[in-house]
Amino acid sequence: MKVIAVYHNKGGVGKTTIVVNLAAALSKKGKRILVIDLDSQANATFATGLIKFEDEKDDDLKNANIQHVLEMEDKYFIHEVVRKSQFNTPEIDVVPSHIMLMEKENELSRNRQTELIFSHKLKSVENQYDFVLIDTSPALNLYTRVALTGADYLIIPSDLKPFANQVLANVKNFVKDNNIFRKLLNKRPIQVLGVLPSKIPLNSEFRQYTLPKRMENVRQNYGLPVMNTCISERSDLGACMESIIVTSDGAIPHPRSIFDYRGGNSRSVAEFEALADELLQKTGEL
User: Fold this and answer.
1) Is the whole model's pTM more than 0.70, yes or no?
2) CATH architecture of 2-282
3) 54 to 32, 60, 100: CA distances (angstroms)
4) What is the pLDDT of residues 99-114, one digit of tens each?
């Protein structure tokens, strides 16, 4: 089982879009996939269609989500919390997040075993999945430490704009500090697969002249590899997560993967297929 964290210290770079559609791409290739939402904003939980309620009293996630996985060593194992998501065919397993995770951070931070509990519970399902994809918050916080401790690999989505590039220094330092903790656990340093260009404009002049310079800036000034795949900024990537079903009771959210939303007739689909192939190649699965 290969565990991949998807993280950047800047918001708005497409982390959740990457996680859910890369999960879909790998699933279409026959891989057994688990998505874990470690962001208190629960974007991946919404994007995989698990938030089905409009009224808080109908909230069926509050009593079994990633918070509970992190809290107790001997309860709430992943197989007890995981949900089946129908945002993609075939279905994908998801450990949901919840907005209450934000309030629990200080309490969980006082438990120095939190990272160990997460890694231990991941190990308990290592024979059930081929890949685990972890969505993270754009913060240098406990939940990001948990993700980077449990993961084998790291993908850093970035729109490569100046501010996003400047924050890469924070990401590198955070990874370096976390690798010290990993060493104490006898775990090798997390392998950075690369900075993934994402939400990249389609403008041909930008791609010909500006994009190569920004990619080289990442390599030269931050010493990070850049992935070969590029995820473009297209309207269908937003539309698929905002998809609805209209019923007699009104509009019901029905987010879908780009694969189920567009089928094979989409350049976005082709880009995520390429990303899945690159991931398989870099993790020794292809």
Assistant:
1) yes
2) 3-Layer(aba) Sandwich (3.40)
3) 31, 11, 17
4) 999 999 999 998 879 9
